[in-house]
Amino acid sequence: MRRQVTITKKKIDEQRCTEERELDTRSGAVVCFLGIVRGTEGDERIKSLEYEAFEKMAYHQFNLILDQVQTQWPVRSVRLIHRIGIVEAGQPSLWIEVTAPHRKEAFEASEWLIDEMKRKVPIWKKPILK
Amino acid sequence: MSQTISIQVLFHSYCREITGIDSTVMEIEDGLTIKELTELIMKTYPVLSPMKRSMLTAVGLDYLPKDYRLKDGDEVSFFPPVQGG
């Protein structure tokens, strides 16, 4: 399984991500997920979120999660970008792409990966209110 | 007399903000567990006490069981629940 994990202060460039996609003839499904910063949280209006990571551990935990993805589904590749620093409301903070032979495993692996990330990867966010 | 070991304690995110410290070296009793170190940290930094139940710990880059016995040179991180995405 090919894997690429990036934690960055740079904006997520979806077009570039798509252009750099490498497909092979065994990949029948590509699932992309984009996590966007919401402009509201409860009653509060949010200007942006400030993300912080314990980067060394975050990369390590992402790789442990991807090791498990590899053992549970016949996934061909995972590419993942997580923003740190200030991300304005309406902008993406997370981009994930999973390719697999069939859509079922691509959807399942994507969802599981995101759930695991939210449990284990040391990234935090702080709202900056309007 | 029991021996002591030296560990580095790191505070991340909200734990760093409320203690005002990002890292400190501690001399602790040899054989102390993560659970026992957490109790010690709560006494040393009472401002963290409200987070006792939710706070996460890691040794190096891994989550380890609370009964893990710390070794000389270990780097122990304390941080609030993670919130990626």
Overview features:
heterodimer; A: 130 residues; Aldehyde Oxidoreductase, domain 3; 8 strands; B: alpha+beta; Ubiquitin-like (UB roll); four-stranded mixed β-sheet; 2 helices
Word description of this protein:
With 130 residues, chain A is α+β, with helices and mostly antiparallel strands. Chain A has one domain (2-129): Aldehyde Oxidoreductase, domain 3 (Alpha-Beta Complex), CATH 3.90.1170. Chain A is 32% helix and 42% strand. Chain A is built from 3 helices and 8 strands. Chain A has helices at 14-19, 55-72, 103-120; strands at residues 2-8, 29-36, 40-41, 44-53, 77-83, 85-88, 92-100, 123-129. In chain A, strand 3 and strand 4 form a beta hairpin. In chain A, helix 2 packs antiparallel against helix 3. The longest helix of chain A is centred in the middle third of the chain and has 18 residues, at 55-72. Chain B has 85 residues and is of the alpha+beta class. Chain B has one domain (4-79): Ubiquitin-like (UB roll) (Roll), CATH 3.10.20. Chain B is 21% helix and 28% strand. Chain B has helices at 13-19, 34-44, and strands at 4-11, 23-29, 56-59, 75-79. Chain B has a 4-stranded mixed beta sheet. Chain B starts with a strand and ends in a 6-residue tail after the last strand. The mean pLDDT of chain B is 96. The chains are: A alpha+beta (130), B alpha+beta (85). Chain A binds chain B through residues 35, 52-54, 56-58, 60-61, 82, 93-94, 114, 117-125, and chain B through 10, 12-14, 56, 58, 61-63, 77, 79-80, 82-85.
